[in-house]
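User: Please write out a complete single-protein record containing the residue sequence and its fold in token form, without commentary.

AI:
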Amino acid sequence: MTKLITFLAIAIAAAAQAQTFTNWHTSDGLPTDDLRDVAIAPDGNIWIATGNGVAMFDGTTFTTHNTTTHPGLASNDVMAVAVMSNGDVWAGTDFGASRFDGSTYTTYTIADGLGDNEVRNIKQAPNGDIWFATINGATKYNGGTFTEYTTPNIPFGGALHTAFATNGDVWISGGLGGAIEFDGSTFAPYSTGAGLVSNRVRGIAIDGAGNKWVGTAEGISVLDASNVHTGNHTRPFIMAPPDTLNPITDVHVDDHGRIWAGIYVDYLVTVGGVSVYDGTVWTQFEESDGLAGPNVRRMAISSNDDVWVTTSTGLTRISDVNIGIAESEARSFSLFPNPASSTIEIALLEETANARLEVRDAIGRVVLVERIAGMRAHVDVSALPVGFYHARIGARSVAFAVAR
């Protein structure tokens, strides 16, 4: 039976907020409570990497894929999951990466060109390339061809995560070697010498302004759009002394520019949860607030701002999030021409001093952010590839296409 836990009176700068937590466990249909990763498909289905196969949740029912139901799956011990823009689902295991085309799984290993069989993260770049973070480095898959990147470009320790900047650069989380920027030809490392609080990087998120939020074993470091270190957040999750260390397990940016971080500490005590930063303060959520457990693994954020959290003890959805949303009111606006070639015009129905326009691609990545003053603005979209996009101001979203 799904358990719904609502809590009130979360104080942020003396203002009351409210979130809703919904948890699912094996009793609700999950194949196990040991959950590792989560991804949201274009159709809204939730895909989960578990210790006992891949689970798909349609909002009502869990469907499990394992080596018995789907023999092409490399292993039931699934560490990573990702959904591509065409709907294909990739599962990362210790025995290779398996691609689900809607009916069957096909597994790819070192023999096919994958850099290593131990896959820890899978992401699709805006240009369609698929990146695998493995214990030996990173592998790019494009048009049926695997390209492996390892030492010295990616230091010993392999990779744990990848993220993508709007200029096409790939950012790789080095398990022991800091953050690595790859521009397609050159690798540039960023480590403690560049200001990172730790070289053990677990995840990277890039916001609409181009800032890189680098999640490490000792907190979050921020690099600006020019990759200059601008500060550290070493305690987004507050716990009782002497436990002050904040090992970050995942980092995400939501539609409102808020930073979400998963934290898990297993040293003197076992404690962890999820923290969100609104640009001013961090607010934390833990098991006592409604999370399924303290051991937070990975997160995903849906188009309606629900935050999905995988833990070692079940699945949590955080919904009705309203922390720090200064522009969440629906701002009616129109967009033309549609389709557009090089410029779109935004026309608001009410004057604003500083509205935030955010453009996301077909799989939900932020590709453009602009500030709008007044009632009309012209926005350059000439750098965006041909395709489908969503323009969003506050809670209002308009779909449009770029065609040339």
Notes: The chain has two domains: 3-319, 333-402. The CA atoms of residues 202 and 301 lie 18 Å apart.
